[in-house]
Amino acid sequence: QVQLVESGGGLVQAGDSLRLSCGVSGSTLSSYGMAWFRQAPGKEREFVAYLAWRNINADYADSVKGRFTISRDNAKNTAYLQMNSLKPEDTAVYYCAARLLHNFGSYYTERGYDFWGQGTQVTVSS
């Protein structure tokens, strides 16, 4: 049973930084493509960032490009989302997700993932 557990969320001020972590248990992180999504109150869950299993290609939503960085440490079975220059509009519950190598669905959509974490709240005050 693969489990993903996010941590690192919190309440910060605009301009601050946070680093979210996503611990993977029950399998090896190197076998998955990893992503972060977020869901603000009253809105649909949206794609934030993706990192392929070979750590070669990273992709970001336009709204976070240049401010957020996705990374992974396969030895620690953990993925990360470094968030800099946070804005109030970044306030949301952040979810990590993992996709198996044979999942060829679009990594921009929820259907492209096989496993999800429970989410961690990020609140950015102005």
What would the principal axes of the Cα set say about the shape?
globular
Helix/strand structural class = mainly beta
Order of helices and strands: EEEEEEEEEEE
Our Rg estimate from Cα atoms comes to: 13 Å
Our count of helices gives 0
Helix content: under 10%
**Low-pLDDT regions:** none
For the report, how would you describe the main beta sheet? 7 strands, mixed
Beta fraction: over 45%
Number of strands: 11
Q: How many angstroms separate the termini?
A: 40 Å
What is the mean pLDDT? 94
Topology:
Elements: E1 3-7, E2 10-13, E3 18-25, E4 32-39, E5 46-51, E6 58-60, E7 68-73, E8 78-83, E9 92-100, E10 115-116, E11 120-125
Parallel strand pairs: 2-11
Antiparallel strand pairs: 1-3, 3-8, 4-5, 4-9, 5-6, 7-8, 9-10, 9-11
Brief characterization of the structure:
This protein has strands at 3-7, 10-13, 18-25, 32-39, 46-51, 58-60, 68-73, 78-83, 92-100, 115-116, 120-125.
Keywords:
seven-stranded mixed β-sheet, 0% helix, four-stranded antiparallel β-sheet, 126 residues, mainly beta
Would you write up a description of this structure?
The protein has 126 residues and is mostly beta strands. Helix content is 0%, strand content 50%. It has no helices and 11 strands. It has strands at residues 3-7, 10-13, 18-25, 32-39, 46-51, 58-60, 68-73, 78-83, 92-100, 115-116, 120-125. The strands form 2 sheets. Strands 2, 4, 5, 6, 9, 10 and 11 form a 7-stranded mixed β-sheet that branches. Strands 1-3-8-7 form a 4-stranded antiparallel β-sheet, with no helix packed on it. Strand 5 and strand 6 form a beta hairpin. The mean pLDDT is 94.
